[in-house]
Every structure is written in structure tokens, then in C-alpha cells.
Design goal:
By secondary structure, the chain is an alpha/beta fold. The protein has a single domain, classed as TIM Barrel (Alpha-Beta Barrel). Helix content is about 40%, strand content about 15%.
């Protein structure tokens, strides 16, 4: 069924198809009866919950940041069987993002290229939505357990790297009451200079400040760091050392890649798409290698969330075997459809 729907959606520009899909999902989920039907169909059966960083996840499959940037569709996404949903990337001030077109499909590679540029409504507006979700909406959507929500935070394009720590702290403080965990995004290739924040001097200031602020809160929240797949091994070693020293709760491995090698799509077509981060199946091998390296280097001391090239139960099992505790999908969701969480949860458990 979804293969037919996907053919129709793929006739539209990717960003418009994304918005249309969410609109129809919103319509379908507008009544308690239809929400119950969707949950009965998409909720994984007999899957054991897993506890990571003090949080009980109902299953091991989550939706990565970028799908619901502005926390507008939590009610709908809660019907599709995900163990968690990550909103964002959220910045202090609203951003329009980069000029369109900024999202491209590579069907021959089961991949996407995006250069969205942290388009979002800003942390103040998004925090208000999350507050409303927690206090008014979620209690009335018939969930057996509250939806686990992650807050992916970043800096505004106009903020210098020297002042970036202020943006992360600003977002952290305003989202803290309403999310279950945080992901620090310093690895998107679509904000100029952002990946330079992975250098130790910048990264240490950001993470140390967030951890300090976290410990001052009445209840601390887990903080994960999302890294790029394009780091050199010496850079990965520095990240590992810093995460262990600061006592961070884990890593999300990984963001999109700027590499374009070994693609089936014609080089001239890829070139016309321009700059941006590549996600999907081409990222699978590098992602698994990174997971294995970090897991072995740390003897499993750092919890890992795998994100990259996950479409099937066997893809997820590969990540779990490499050391991941959870997996996240995004491009896989686009290509495989709304049953992906159920299929992976039941097929890889």
C-alpha cells in the first residue's frame, strides 16, 4: 500500500510532499477513534522496553530530529509506534533556513540530500507548544505511557562560534521542563561554520556549560552529543575523551555526511542538487564503523544512539550488534513508510 502512496508523493517536490503527508496524518488523527485504529495497527507488539540514561523507552526505534522540527505533530507521530520522537533542531531565534529547493531525493540510492539550515519557529514558541502538549494534549490522547521527547538544540546562523555556547544554554533552559533528554547538534553541514564547534576548544565550553546548568536544575536531564560521520579518527578520540571527562550521557552517531562517493545516482544529477548533508543507505557502512569504534574504544561506557542508513530490521540489528542501544530513522521513514517502527521493533527484538 505504501509503495503506491510513495509513488504519488514522489511526484511532488520533497518538502511539499513532507508537508502534505503530515497534513493527511493530522486529518486522520483528528478523532480518538481513528487514533486508536492507527495505534492498534502500528504499535509494536510484545516488545520489551529498554532503559537508557535513566529513561524508559517503550521500544528501541525513534524518529530523528528534522522530521517534526517545530513540535507540531506529536499527537500524530505518537500513533505510529515510535519509542521516542526528537524535535528540532531548535535555535534561540526563529530561522527561515536556506532558500528552496533545499531537499532532494536520490531514489536509486535510497537517500536524501538536505540543506535545510535549521529552519524552525524559535525556542520560545516551541517551548510553549511542548508545554501545551505535556499539560493539555498528551493526557487526552489515550497513550498508555507518555511519549518520550528529545530536544535537539543548535545555534542561530548569525551567532558567532565564540558566542555559540550562549545559544545552546538559552535553548537548554527554555526546553528543560518539557523534554526528556537533549541532543547537542554541532554537526549539521548546513549552517556555515557549525561543524567547527566539534573542535575541542568550542565543544568543551558548550558541553561544560550545559552540564553545569543541568546539575543546577531541580531534576537533571540526559544530554547527548550528535557527531558528524566525517570526523577523522583523532577527532573521534578527542570527542570520546571529552564526553567521558564531562560525564555526558551519550552520543548520537551520526549526522548527515558531506561525502558523495559510491552513489548510483548520476554524478551530474548529484552535482545539480548542490551542497547539503547526505542521509540514507549510503551512510550505513560508515555509521556502523563509527559505532563499533566508539563502543570498543570505551568498552561500552558511552551509550550510543544510531542514526544513519536504517531501513529494515537487519539494518537495526547491525547497529545493535555494533554497540547501539537505540536507533533513529528519518530517511528510512520516507522510503519505508509509517510501519517502519513496528517492522524494526518486531523484526530486530
Amino acid at each position: 500500500m505504501y509503495k503506491l502512496i510513495r509513488k504519488i508523493l514522489f511526484l511532488l517536490p520533497p518538502e511539499e510532499a513532507h508537508q502534505l503527508s503530515l497534513f493527511f496524518l493530522q486529518v486522520i488523527c483528528s478523532t480518538p477513534f481513528t487514533r486508536r485504529i492507527l495505534r492498534n495497527f502500528f504499535e509494536p507488539a510484545k516488545v520489551s522496553p529498554v532503559k537508557i540514561a535513566g529513561i524508559q523507552f517503550r521500544n528501541r526505534v525513534g524518529l530523528a530530529a528534522g522530521f517534526d522540527k517545530n513540535a507540531l505533530h506529536l499527537r500524530e507521530l505518537s500513533c505510529l509506534g515510535f519509542g521516542h520522537v526528537e524535535i528540532g533542531t531548535v535555535t534561540p531565534q526563529p530561522q527561515r533556513g536556506n532558500e528552496k529547493p533545499r531537499l532532494f531525493r536520490l531514489p536509486e540510492d535510497n537517500a536524501l540530500i538536505n540543506r535545510m539550515g535549521f529552519n524552525n519557529d524559535g525556542v520560545v514558541t516551541i517551548a510553549k507548544r511542548l508545554k501545551q502538549w505535556r499539560e493539555e494534549v498528551q493526557p487526552n490522547v489515550d497513550l498508555e505511557k507518555p511519549l518520550i521527547i528529545g530536544g535537539n538544540i543548535g545555534k542561530n546562523k548569525s551567532t558567532s562560534n565564540e558566542e555559540a555556547w550562549r545559544d545552546y544554554e538559552f535553548c537548554f533552559e527554555r526546553l528543560h521542563p518539557w523534554v526528556d533528554y537533549f541532543v547537542v547538534n554541532v554537526s549539521s553541514p548546513n549552517t556555515p561554520g557549525l561543524r567547527a564547534l566539534q573542535d575541542r576548544s568550542f565543544l568543551e565550553k558548550i558541553l561544560t556549560g550545559l552540564q553545569k546548568r543541568n546539575q543546577e536544575m531541580k531534576k537533571s536531564k540526559p544530554i547527548f552529543l550528535k557527531i558528524a560521520p566525517d570526523l577523522e579518527w583523532t577527532q573521534v578520540d578527542e570527542v570520546i575523551e571529552l564526553v567521558l571527562a564531562i560525564g555526558l550521557d551519550g552520543l548520537v552517531v551520526s549526522n548527515t555526511t558531506i561525502r558523495r562517493d559510491s552513489l548510483q545516482t548520476a554524478p551530474n544529477a548529484v552535482s545539480r542538487m548542490g551542497a547539503g548533508g547526505l542521509s540514507g543507505a549510503p551512510l550505513k557502512e560508515r555509521n556502523t564503523t563509527l559505532l563499533q569504534y566508539i563502543h570498543q574504544k570505551t568498552n561500552g561506557k558511552i551509550p550510543l544512539i544510531a542514526s544513519g542508513g536504517i531501513f529494515t530490521p537487519s539494518d537495526a540489528a547491525e547497529k545493535f550488534n555494533a554497540g547501539a542501544s537505540l536507533v533513529q530513522v528519518w530517511t528510512g521513514f520516507v522510503y519505508e513508510g509509517p510501519a517502519i517502527a513496528k517492522n524494526i521493533s518486531e523484526g530486530s527484538s
